[in-house]
Amino acid sequence: MYGFGTVEQNNDKFSTNPLKEKFKTKAEIELIAKSNPRIMAILKEHNIPLEVNISALEKLEKGHLKDVRIIAAKIYSALPENLKSEVNLSDVQQAAMLHDYGKVLIPKKILDKEGKLTPEEKEIMDLHSELGYELLKNQGLNEEVLSLVKYHHQRPDGKGYPVIDDGFIFGISSQIVTAADKFSALTEDRCYHKACSKEEALGIIAQDVENGVISKEVFDALNKAVK
């Protein structure tokens, strides 16, 4: 990670952390999961035991989730004023801090696997977006935050995951979270890859502009944000 501490101290107005304030303990998360029929159906369909991986959530909270939140705030700050008006910064930062929350229900052997996932493992990993949404949907978050959590791996053409519903809009807020998430993931060491340089990560994300996944304005703002 690239250490955005100065920005967080000086410019980041997001003073609360939803992971610390709510939804934190293993017992709380397990109770929410057990009381949610959709979660239990997903786990049963994929033969996933209900095991709350609280250590993974704590690791994410201190690293990737915090990183994505700060990068997202910096992207917002670098946007043209006309695009800023389309974004609620607080919603974007909450979603950034919670977007991978569903990984708390993904088996540890898949989360920590070194090397490429099998198609079956990839299918289970991809469930984290919907599982996060289901865990959070009755916990006092607004619909914009929940939509950003659920669809942070979706695309304007609907070819991402999970399957979109009628209310899905891939707007500027979605692009900010998507770009921040991808940049953070590419520039940190993970069990399945070594960190890319900033330049390498930006080169990869530039392809998303060519493919219509994010706009040039959001990419330019990311470029300014991380340099």
**SS content category:** mainly alpha
- Please compute the radius of gyration using only Cα atoms: 17 Å
Output mean pLDDT. 86
* H/I helix tally: 15
Portion of residues in helices? 55-70%
The portion of residues forming beta strands comes to under 5%
DSSP strand tally: 0
Measure the end-to-end span. Answer: 13 Å
The biggest sheet, with number of strands, parallel, antiparallel or mixed sense and barrel status, is: none
H/E element string?
Answer: HHHHHHHHHHHHHHH
Low-confidence blocks of residues: 1-15
Based on Cα principal axes, name the global outline. globular
Q: Could you please describe the fold and organization of this structure?
A:
By secondary structure, this protein is mainly α. It is built from 15 helices and no strands. α5 (54-62) runs parallel beside α6, α6 (64-78) crosses α15 and α8 crosses α12 (143-150). It is globular. The two termini are 13 Å apart. The model is unreliable at 1-15 (pLDDT under 50).
Q: Summary?
A:
The protein is mostly helical and 227 residues long. Helix content is 59%, strand content 0%.
Which helices and strands, and how do they pair?
Blueprint: H1 5-10, H2 18-21, H3 26-34, H4 37-45, H5 54-62, H6 64-78, H7 81-84, H8 89-98, H9 108-111, H10 119-125, H11 128-136, H12 143-150, H13 172-186, H14 198-210, H15 216-226
Helix pairs in contact: 5-6, 6-8, 6-13, 6-15, 8-12, 8-13, 11-12, 13-14, 14-15
